Amino acid sequence: MLMAFTLNKGYLEQVAINAAADLVKEVIWVDAIAPSDEEREWLRVAYQQELPTIDDLYEIEATSRFYETENGLHISSYFLNYADENSENISAAFVFNSERLFTLREEELAAFRLFRLRARKGLINLTNSKSIMLGLFETKVENLADILERVAAELEETSRQVLGNAEQDDMESLLTSIARQEDVNGKVRISMMDLQRMLYLLLRSGILNAEQSERLRDIIRDSESLIASTSFLFDKIKFLLDTTLGFINVNQNKIIKIFSVAAVIFLPPTMVASVYGMNFKFMPELEWQLGYPWALGLMLLSAAAPFWYFKRRHWL
C-alpha cells in the first residue's frame, strides 16, 4: 500500500495513489506499507527511486542501517508495535532523495498513524521532508513513553497483588504478568537504544540545519531519559519476580512442613501398632483382657506427645 502526501502551509495533505501518474512532483512524503511489485515499479517510474526489500530492514550491522547511496540516504529504525499479548519491534526504513522522504515498513504502526493524524491537523511543525522524519521520531518517543507508563501502572497493580499476600493459585498468573512486563520493557529499551544510535549518526551527517539539529538533540535527551526509566523498571521487575518466587517457596515450605509434622506424629502410633501386630506366641498382652484398650491408648499418647511438643516450640 502506498500513501503520498504534499505539504501545504505546514499541513499534510494526502494524495490518492492509483497509478504511477498520481505520484506528482509536489509529493514530499511517500509512505509504503509492504508495497507490491507494481507499487515499487510506480516509484521507479515517477521518482527513479528504488526501495530496499523488507529483509534489508532487519540487518543489524550499523553500516546496513545507516548508509548513503545513489538512491539517497537510508536509515532504518525499530518501532514497537505494542499489543497486550505480543509486542514486537518492527523495522522501518527512511530514505531521503531530492528533498523527498520515502518510508517503508511491513505493517502499520501506531507512531505513524498518530503522526499522520496530528500532521493533518497542523499540530506538528512541518517545513520539509526532514521535519517530517523528526516529527516521526518525536512521535515514536512519545509512543514509547506511553507504553512505559502502561508498564509502570501494570507493575504497580502486580506489586499490590504480590505484597497483598496473593493466594497460591494466583502466583502463576502473577509470574506470567511479570514476564510480559519484562518483555515489553526490554523491547522498549531496544527500540530506544536503536533510535539513539540512529539519531547520533543523523546528527553527525550534517544534513540538518541548526534548528533541526537542536530539535534532534531534544529527541536524544528524551530518549536518554526513557532509557533510564527502563533501567528503573527492570529493577522493579526483578524485585517483584524475586518476591513472587520467595512467596511461592514459603507456601511450598508450609505444605512440606505439614506433611513432615504429620509423618512424625503418626510414626510412634505406627510403631506401637507394628509391635502388637507381630503375633509372636509369647506376648503377655495377647491374652490380656485390657490389651486392646492399652494399645489404643498408647498409640493416642504417642501421637499426642509430639503434637504437644511441636505446639510448645511454635513449630505449628
Describe the structure.
The protein has 316 residues and is an alpha+beta fold. It folds into two domains: 2-249, CorA soluble domain-like (Beta Polymerase, domain 2), CATH 3.30.460; 250-312, Magnesium transport protein CorA, transmembrane region (Methane Monooxygenase Hydroxylase, Chain G, domain 1, Up-down Bundle). The chain is built from seven helices and seven strands; from the N terminus they run βββααββββααααα. The chain has helices spanning 37-47, 62-65, 110-120, 129-163, 168-205, 210-275, 291-312, and strands at 2-8, 11-15, 29-33, 66-69, 72-81, 88-97, 100-105. The chain has a seven-stranded mixed sheet with strand order 2-1-3-7-6-5-4. α3 (110-120) crosses α4 (129-163), α4 (129-163) packs parallel to α6 and α5 (168-205) packs antiparallel against α6 (210-275). The longest helix has 66 residues, at 210-275. The protein is rod-shaped. The model has no long low-confidence stretch (mean pLDDT 83).
Give a topology summary.
Elements: E1 2-8, E2 11-15, E3 29-33, H1 37-47, H2 62-65, E4 66-69, E5 72-81, E6 88-97, E7 100-105, H3 110-120, H4 129-163, H5 168-205, H6 210-275, H7 291-312
Parallel strand pairs: 3-7
Antiparallel strand pairs: 1-2, 1-3, 4-5, 5-6, 6-7
Whole-Å distance between the termini?
A: 69 Å
Low-confidence stretches: none
What is the total tally of β strands?
7
Number of domains: 2
CATH class designation of the largest domain? Alpha Beta
Number of helices: 7
